[in-house]
Amino acid sequence: MSRAPRFPSRFSSPFAAPALVAFAALARAPAPASAQAWVPPGKTGSVSLGFQWIDNTGHILDNGKPDDLHPGASVDASLYLTLEYAISDRLSAEIGLPFVWAKYVGPGPPPGPVFPSVDSCYCWNGGFQDFGIIARYNAIGEPGGAFALTPSIAFGVPSNDYAYQGEAVVGRNLKELALAVDAGQRLDAISPALSVQARYAYAFVQKVQDISTNRSNFAVQAAYQITRPLAVQGFAWWQWTHGGLRVPEDLIGASDEIWAQHDRLLRNDYFHAGAGVTYSFPHLDVYANYIGFVSGSNTHQGWATSVGVSWPFELGTGDAAP
């Protein structure tokens, strides 16, 4: 069993990476989980523990250029636990919860009339983020076959009423529901060790101040099994927010209510790319990956690294596909 890159992010809920948690500011939105086209064999599952470090090196304006007046750098660290179980050869469920630490490092205060206390102390702030629950069903393709098409539904719910104003916070404190479809193809004509996948997801996000931040995410991944235990992956993610606030246009002259909410209402669009490696031991898998900002608007630039382990398990014998 080879574990795909998992990215929990403080500005997303754990349905797209733990499976989720993404780049706090670098990606204040879920980075879609990879390798979800193929459902694990029935009656098998895994427990995964991952750690991610995020270095947000600055803000990106609506025009795609860095905000040199308010760089607003911050760092984030995430520890996340995920449980996945395949009910049958086609149906699986997953639940995850990250614990996130965040720290504002400046220089200077971020833009706006208020310097939040979580930022002004220049100290670490931590807490549990959002519960994430995912259900996936392999609708087309034979279990373990060369092709798979797998729709999914995911829910993200804040685990507590945590603070969301400022840079050094653990999340946006918003409920989300996402519908997605993953497609995967093993390229046997070239090599049975080579596969490609693509994913599209649409997230319905809880509105604030009657402003929508629903979003679309698209991801692609190529993976190559170098040896039986060793695999490498390359991946890319795009995000488009359908609504949200532009910086600085929509914040000039904005009301105090909008300023108080703006950290979770940005029109966060980005393109990220990265690579990873997975090694499978007899009773556990380990992985490491890197992802970096390529372009975007109303977002953050920076980079992130993740490492983790996954312990596969089996309960009974996998059943035949329904």
What is the topology?
Blueprint: E1 44-60, E2 73-86, E3 91-106, H1 117-120, E4 125-128, E5 130-137, E6 147-158, E7 176-186, E8 194-205, E9 213-225, E10 230-243, H2 256-261, E11 269-280, E12 285-297, E13 299-314
Antiparallel strand pairs: 1-2, 1-13, 2-3, 3-4, 3-5, 5-6, 6-7, 7-8, 8-9, 9-10, 10-11, 11-12, 12-13
Précis, in short:
The protein is mainly beta and 322 residues long. Helices cover 3% and strands 50% of the residues.
Structure description:
- This protein is mainly beta.
- It has one domain: Beta Barrel (Lipocalin), CATH 2.40.128.
- The chain has 2 helices and 13 strands.
- It has helices spanning 117-120, 256-261; strands at 44-60, 73-86, 91-106, 125-128, 130-137, 147-158, 176-186, 194-205, 213-225, 230-243, 269-280, 285-297, 299-314.
- Mean pLDDT is 87; it is low at 1-34 and 318-322.
Integer-rounded radius of gyration? 19 Å
Highest-level CATH class: Mainly Beta
The N- to C-terminal Cα distance equals 22 Å
Helix content: under 10%
CATH superfamily: Autotransporter beta-domain
Low-pLDDT segments, ≥5 res: 1-34, 318-322
By DSSP (H or I, 4+ residues per run), the number of helices equals: 2
Shape: elongated
Major sheet characteristics: 12 strands, antiparallel, barrel
- What is the CATH topology classification name? Lipocalin
**Beta-strand residue percentage:** over 45%
| Computed structural class | mainly beta
> Roughly what is the average pLDDT, rounded to an integer?
87
**Helix and strand run:** EEEHEEEEEEEHEEE
Question: Can you tell me the CATH architecture?
Answer: Beta Barrel
Domain count: the total is 1
